[in-house]
Amino acid sequence: MKYIHFLLLLSLAACTRQPADHFVLRGTVPGAVDSTTVSLRISSGNGVMQKIESYIIGEKFELSGKVDAPARSELFIDSYDIIRRMGKDYEMGRSCNIDFFVENGNLTFSTPHLDSLPQSYWRYDIRKEKNYRVKGSPAQDAYYEYQQQTLLLRHSIIQLMSKTDCTREEKRQMADLRTQLTEKGWSFVRNHSNLAAKLYVANLLKKNAFTYDQAYLDELEKLFASSQDTCQALKDFRQYLRDAARFVQGTPLQDGKITDAKGKTVSLLGQLNPAGYTVIDFWASWCAPCRASFPHLKEMSKCYGEKVKFLSISIDQKEEDWKEAMEEEKMPWPQFLCPTALKKELPALYDLRGVPTFFLIDPQGRIVFSGHDTDNLGAQLEKTGV
C-alpha cells in the first residue's frame, strides 16, 4: 500500500513538474465539439512563424512546443470544418482568435464557453478578451493586466475607426482616447518588470515619422536602460530607436528632382515657401483616400491663403493617369510628378510607405509634421499660429 502511495506521489510530481526547455499548453473549451481544430501560431523575432496543431476532444486540448524566449502567439479555434463534415448548420461553426504570451513551462487556457471567445477577422469583438485566461506565463500575467485596463479604451477607438463618416468632433474624441491609451502604456512600462510584456507595450508607443522629437526617443530608451541585450526583441527595439532618430521633427527636407505639369524638371526645395510654411501632399490617382482628402485640403488652402503654400506630388507610375486625375480634381495649387529615382528613395528619406501622406515644412525647410489625416494636418497648422 505504501509502495502504491509512493508511485501516486511520483506520478503527481511528474505531472506538475515545470518543464524547462519546452512548454505544454492544456486548455478547456466548454461547448466545443470533438475534432475542433486548435492551431497555435508563434511569432519569433526573426520573422519565422512556428505553427502547432491539435484537436479538441472532450472539450480539452493539449499543445506542446518550444520557444527561446516569451513570445506573442495566436491561438485559433476553428470548428467550421468539423461542423460541415457532420452535416450540421454552417452557422453553428466558430472561428476564434486569441492572443497571448507563450513561454516554456506548464500553461493552462480556460474560458467559460466557446461562444464567449472573440471570433476571428471582421467578427472580432475586443470586449470578449476578458473571457479567457492563460496562466503559467509571467509575461502573459503582466500583459493581461494591461489588456484589461485598456479594454474599454481600445474598444471605443475601434468603434470610431470603423465609422466611414466620422465628424471632426468624433476625430477629436478619437485623438483624446489615443492620448489616454498612450498614457496607460507609459504607466505600464514604467511600473512593470517583465521584459517581454514591457517591450510589447513599448512598441505600441512608437509614433509616426516626424511627429516626435529626440527627447521622446530618449525617454523610450530610458525605459530599458537597466536591461541587457539578452533577447532579440530588445535588440530590435534599440535598433528602431537608432533608425527613428533619422525622422525626428526638425529634420531638413532633402532636395530632389520633380516634374511640373508642363513637363519641366525642377528642384523640390525650390518649390518651398521661403517666407512661411509649406504643405506637401503625396498622393496617387488610384488612391481613393487621397482623392477624398482634396476637399478638406482646398478648404485649408482658402483659409490660410498665401501664409501657407500647398503643393501636391503624385507617385503615379503613368504620367497620363496623373494628368487625368489632376484635371478631374482641379486642385488650385502647384502639381508635380515624382520621378522613379526619387520614388525609390522616399522610404529611406522620409519613412514614406503609403499615401496619402502630408508633410508640413517650416520656413527653414525643416519637416515639423507628417501624417495621413487632414484633420491632424489642420490641427498641426493651428499650432503653428499662422
Strand content: 15-25%
Global shape: elongated
Largest sheet report: 8 strands, mixed
Quaternary assembly: single chain
Unreliably modeled segments: 1-17
SSE string, helices as H and strands as E: HEEEEEHEEEHHHHHHEEEEHEHEHEEH
User: How far is the N terminus from the C terminus?
Assistant: 90 Å
Strand order of the largest sheet: 9-16-15-12-13-14-10-11
The helix tally amounts to: 12
Mean pLDDT: 91
Structural class of the helix and strand makeup?
alpha+beta
What helical percentage do the residues reach?
25-40%
Radius of gyration: 26 Å
Strand element count: 16
List its traits.
eight-stranded mixed β-sheet, alpha+beta, 12 helices, 23% strand, four-stranded mixed β-sheet, 386 residues
What's the SSE blueprint?
Blueprint: H1 2-16, E1 23-28, E2 36-43, E3 49-56, E4 60-65, E5 71-78, H2 80-85, E6 95-102, E7 105-110, E8 133-135, H3 138-149, H4 151-161, H5 168-191, H6 195-203, H7 214-222, H8 232-244, E9 251-252, E10 257-260, E11 265-267, E12 277-283, H9 288-304, E13 308-314, H10 319-329, E14 335-337, H11 340-350, E15 357-361, E16 366-371, H12 374-384
Parallel strand pairs: 1-7, 12-13, 13-14
Antiparallel strand pairs: 1-4, 2-3, 2-5, 5-6, 7-8, 9-16, 10-11, 10-14, 12-15, 15-16
Can you walk through the features of this model?
The protein is of the alpha+beta class. Helices cover 39% and strands 23% of the residues. It has 12 helices and 16 strands. It has helices spanning 2-16, 80-85, 138-149, 151-161, 168-191, 195-203, 214-222, 232-244, 288-304, 319-329, 340-350, 374-384, and strands at residues 23-28, 36-43, 49-56, 60-65, 71-78, 95-102, 105-110, 133-135, 251-252, 257-260, 265-267, 277-283, 308-314, 335-337, 357-361, 366-371. The strands form 3 sheets. Strands 9-16-15-12-13-14-10-11 form an 8-stranded mixed β-sheet. Strands 4-1-7-8 form a 4-stranded mixed β-sheet. Helix 3 (138-149) packs parallel to helix 6 (195-203), helix 4 runs antiparallel to helix 5 (168-191) and helix 5 packs antiparallel against helix 6 (195-203). The longest helix is centred in the middle third of the chain and has 24 residues, at 168-191. The radius of gyration is 26 Å and the shape is elongated. 25% of the residues are buried. Mean pLDDT is 91; it is low at 1-17.
